[in-house]
Amino acid sequence: MRRNFLSVLFALDATLLVLLVIAFQFVEAGTSEYAILQVSLGVILLTVVGLAIAARRGQRLFEP
Q1: Alpha helices in the chain (DSSP H)
Q2: Where are the bilayer-spanning segments (predicted)?
Q3: Where are the domains of the chain?
Q4: pTM to 2 decimals?
């Protein structure tokens, strides 16, 4: 089955968001690891927003 690039990117973003939520529980605020988690969360959220914009413009996220 052939997959569209946007559907693969969406699945990757969803997986990374779940892992980040889990990681936030084990990291103390004020450390460099916490800063890296926040930057990673920002990048992933920007990618999700980009996917939403692409979906609204009519690009197909999933192929039948």
Answers
A1: 5-24, 32-56
A2: 35-55
A3: 5-56
A4: 0.71
Q: 2 is written with which tokens?
A: 């052939």
Two tokens, residue 34? 């916490």
Structure tokens belonging to residue 50: 């980009």
- Between the alpha carbon of residue 39 and those of residues 4, 52, 61, the distances in Å are 27, 20, 26
Residue type, 50: G
Angle at 56 between CA 4 and CA 48, to 5 degrees: 65
**CA-to-CA distance for 16 and 9, rounded, in angstroms?**
11
Amino acid in the structure at residue 53: I
